[in-house]
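Entry 14. Ran structure prediction on the chain below.
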Amino acid sequence: MENIREDSLSENKQSEELKYEGAAIEDKPRDAAESLQAELAEQKDKYLRLYAEFENYKRMAHKEREELINFANEKLIKDLLPVLDNLELALKHASGEDSSKWIESMKKGVENTLKEFFRILDKYGVKPIESLGQPFNPEVHHAVTTVETEDKEENIVVEELRRGYFYKDKLLREPLVAVSKKPKPSEEGISHPSGVENQ
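Output, structure tokens:
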């Protein structure tokens, strides 16, 4: 009887141990799942915060870019205002004088204004292209006509019809030029292979 009782107690004890181990095994996946869910929630929260910060950064960068585009030329325009002042001043002073003095005054005013204008352009990296007397360069010049001349070699710029400009190292506007070419020899006096001259 004692053996049966001991066996029964032993079985109960084993059964309780198995239940405890089974509960512990079942708790491990539940704990792992909860831990993973908590970590996932934390990562999702970090992602949402980061996404919100990125969206704010994009809006701010877009606003800054728009302001930069809208006000990029502000300094240039401010520097050009004295040129307008000089033109207005020249007109104001010239209007009270007789015609010969007016013309001389206007010429002087325009010359000074042009110098000021070129000084400002130079300050911003805009430089005129010196073309007159230079060899024709199709990468820089735009030839609109040719001029026959004995005085110059061929393909030399003999007239500048519109000035060209570089902006820093970039061609901003090509100059319109007239290019020299040698005159065609006249046909009079040229002997032909047949021995007959043109008349």
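Confidence is low (pLDDT under 50) at residues 191-199. Will compare against last week's run tomorrow.
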